[in-house]
Amino acid sequence: MQDSETFTGGCACGQLTFRAHGAPKRVGLCHCMTCRKTTGSVFNAFAIFPADRVTISGESRSWEAMPGGQRRFCPQCGSLVVYSDGGGEIEIMLGAFDRTDLFRPTYEAWTKRRESWLCTPDLIGYPENRGDVTS
Question: d(Cα 104, Cα 47) in Å, to the nearest integer?
């Protein structure tokens, strides 16, 4: 993967799109209850990019799950596409990218809520949030 590569994607209906430039800072899974409920899945898979390397186009609505944390979704089809907490990073849902098999998660958060049948032995696990880890 090249630092100059551009990754595109968007919602299911194509109205809300994004372009992310360069490699993500990190890629992970989250098993917290908010991610489970907002995705309708047992975990959320995402890539995190510096906010200044992501361009979002189209109409979106947002929902604040926690103070300052905006989950942006398409008002037409309801697809959750990105999450931002204002800290200089944007989390893009892996399922929202136009291409598949782009990124491999290296860690997972909220493992204390992970389904017992889900086996992820190669990932670094955090019982709750990653905390102050910066990479």
Answer: 9
Instruction: Look up residue 17 and give its DSSP letter.
Output: E
Question: d(Cα 72, Cα 97) in Å, to the nearest integer?
Answer: 15
Q: pTM for this structure?
A: 0.89
Burial 89-100 (b: 16+ CB within 10 A, else e): bbbbbbbbbeee
Give the length of the chain: 135
DSSP 135: -
Domain borders along the chain are 6-126
Q: What is the pLDDT of residues 81-118, one digit of tens each?
A: 999 988 899 999 999 999 999 999 999 999 999 999 99
What's the CATH number of domain 6-126, 3.40.190.10, 3.40.50.360, 3.90.1590.10, 3.30.300.30? 3.90.1590.10
Q: How far apart are CA 93 and CA 39, in angstroms?
A: 9
- Give mean pLDDT, residues 41-52: 96
